[in-house]
């Protein structure tokens, strides 16, 4: 056991999914030609007047509520002054002392334990542009399309105690944010970005150690690996009698190590001051109440309800509530077919398998809850076998056809007609005297052979349970 304790706090930047930017009407679509979604307002040209996008504020309030924050009734925008080429006006509109939300928490589950991680604040700000550096290092290009896209910054308390816990926190946070619908949370498109503050201290010590900041990690894997590396690096330095230097680092994926970006000596003084162009915001009770109505049941509550209401295992409930869409699909099915465990098996098993293979999600598949339930009913009534059901679902998934259509077209209906089966079985008994004699001589394998013969002569469509019963019965009288 290490004698050190790890202290990690996270800052998450989230691009809100509004159609237009935070202070102008430029669109926010990702991946358009550079500099085609800009106007004097988002470029910050002299004499322009920013106007707040109300939807962005509502999304920030929704984010705050989902993270159990108090919503400030008085909130305002401030200018954060710094010079950087992706920010032509040399300041970013952000929030300094009156963020939209404060003092919240997020419950995470790590190693079977539920922990409450404090959320210090949730505030609104505008995004900056994007720099593209040439490989030879001779020039840089700048794309201002992203400038002015609304961001919510979520700052956690330094409550995380390991790299693993930080990853779990981010995964759970992303899940919650996706449930609320405030952002698409695509890390690969920069919709969700994460910085971390890391320090280590001897166990039992109250004072925090010197921290370093790890910037711009763009995947959950990078977060965990970057943090693990940084924790090890700090402990090793301390063990060798060195001190930790306060600095900003980035994670170099190819080298597998953290690299210095800048030391704190060069740190900026942002000289925050209230933005004179934007009036302070009153976030009234009415507005908060209105936004509260948009707040869905969140993943953890939903998971707990699934366990108690449908008697599902913790694991099943966890998987089914992985996305809001999957949970909705499952519940729609259960409304029509009241055997949750069976529905759960098919949704998590066969259906998910086809979805993963095809790269589709619950919003894009052709199979509806009604369709899946129709197939499950046929299976339950013995019209199709378990094996057939899998084939039927595959066909439904690929073609979008209904279960009864597939069964009819492929002649897949299971033979469950007593009379028809009896006839076939009589024939099999007559033409296989050897195995019948073996069965009579208590050779167990012979029954399997005879069942196989029946299945063969029906092209696999006989109801196997009925075949077994009838066959045993008939063999008694041979
Ligand atoms: Zn604009």
Structural account:
By secondary structure, the chain is of the alpha+beta class. The chain is 41% helix and 20% strand. It has 16 helices and 16 strands. The protein has a 9-stranded mixed β-sheet. Strands 5-4-15 form a 3-stranded antiparallel β-sheet, with no helix packed on it. The protein starts with a strand and ends with a helix. The model has no long low-confidence stretch (mean pLDDT 93). The site of zinc ion (ZN) has 8 residues, from helix 1.
Order of strands, main sheet, comes to 2-6-7-10-1-11-12-13-14
> How much of the residues is beta strand, in percent?
15-25%
- What level of helicity do the residues show? 40-55%
Question: What are the segments in which pLDDT stays under 50 over at least 5 consecutive residues?
Answer: none
Q: Tell how many strands the DSSP assignment holds.
A: 16
What descriptors fit this protein?
478 residues, alpha+beta, three-stranded antiparallel sheet, 16 helices, elongated, binds zinc ion
Please outline the helices and strands:
Elements: E1 4-15, H1 40-43, H2 54-66, E2 70-71, E3 74-75, E4 78-81, E5 91-94, E6 101-110, E7 113-126, E8 130-133, E9 140-143, E10 150-156, H3 163-180, E11 192-202, E12 212-217, H4 220-239, E13 247-252, E14 257-263, E15 273-274, E16 281-282, H5 285-292, H6 299-310, H7 314-320, H8 324-336, H9 340-358, H10 369-380, H11 386-399, H12 403-409, H13 418-431, H14 433-440, H15 445-457, H16 464-476
Helix pairs in contact: 2-5, 3-4, 6-7, 8-9, 8-10, 10-11, 13-15, 13-16, 14-15, 15-16
The structure holds zinc ion.
Residues 21, 24, 26, 38-39, 41-42, 148 line the site of zinc ion.
């Amino acid at each position: 056991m290490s004698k050190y304790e790890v202290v990690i706090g996270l800052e998450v930047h989230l691009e809100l999914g509004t159609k237009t930017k935070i202070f102008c009407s430029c669109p926010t679509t990702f991946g358009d030609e550079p500099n085609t979604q800009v106007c004097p307002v988002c470029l910050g040209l002299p004499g322009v007047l920013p106007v707040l996008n109300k939807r962005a504020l509502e999304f920030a309030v929704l984010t705050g509520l989902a993270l159990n924050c108090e919503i400030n009734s008085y909130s305002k925008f401030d200018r954060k002054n710094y010079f950087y080429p992706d920010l032509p006006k040399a300041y970013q509109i952000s929030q300094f002392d009156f963020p939209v939300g404060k003092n919240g928490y997020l419950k995470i589950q790590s190693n079977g334990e539920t922990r409450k991680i404090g959320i210090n604040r949730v505030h609104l700000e505008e995004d900056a542009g994007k720099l593209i550096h040439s490989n030879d290092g001779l020039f840089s290009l700048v794309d201002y399309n992203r400038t002015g896209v609304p961001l919510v910054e979520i700052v956690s308390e330094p409550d995380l105690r390991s790299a693993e816990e930080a990853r779990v926190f981010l995964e759970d946070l992303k899940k919650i944010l996706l449930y609320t619908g405030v952002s698409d949370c695509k890390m690969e498109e920069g919709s969700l970005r994460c910085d971390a503050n890391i320090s280590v201290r001897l166990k039992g010590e109250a004072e925090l150690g010197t921290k370093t900041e790890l910037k711009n990690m763009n995947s959950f894997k990078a977060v965990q690996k970057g943090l693990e590396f940084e924790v090890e690096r700090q402990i090793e330095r301390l063990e060798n009698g060195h001190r930790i230097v306060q600095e900003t680092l980035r994670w170099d994926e190819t080298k597998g190590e953290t690299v210095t970006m800048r030391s704190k000596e060069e740190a900026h003084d942002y000289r925050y001051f209230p933005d004179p162009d934007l009036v302070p915001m009153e976030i009234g009770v009415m507005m908060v109440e209105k936004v509260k109505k948009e707040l869905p049941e969140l993943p953890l509550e939903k998971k707990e309800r699934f366990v108690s209401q449908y008697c599902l295992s913790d694991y099943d409930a966890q998987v089914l509530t992985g996305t809001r869409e999957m949970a909705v699909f499952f519940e729609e099915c259960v409304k029509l077919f009241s055997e949750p465990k069976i529905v759960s098996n098919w949704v998590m098993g066969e259906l998910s398998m086809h979805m993963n293979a095809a790269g589709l999600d619950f919003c894009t598949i052709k199979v509806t809850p009604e369709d899946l339930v129709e197939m499950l009913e046929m299976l339950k009534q013995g019209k199709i076998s378990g094996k057939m059901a899998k084939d039927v679902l595959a066909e439904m998934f690929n073609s979008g056809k209904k279960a009864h259509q597939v069964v009819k077209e492929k002649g897949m209906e299971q033979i469950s007609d007593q009379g028809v089966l009896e006839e076939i079985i009589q024939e099999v008994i007559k033409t296989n005297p050897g195995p019948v004699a073996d069965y009579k001589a208590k050779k167990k394998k012979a029954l399997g052979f005879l069942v196989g013969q029946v299945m063969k002569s029906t092209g696999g469509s006989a109801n196997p349970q009925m075949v077994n019963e009838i066959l045993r019965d008939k063999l008694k009288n041979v």
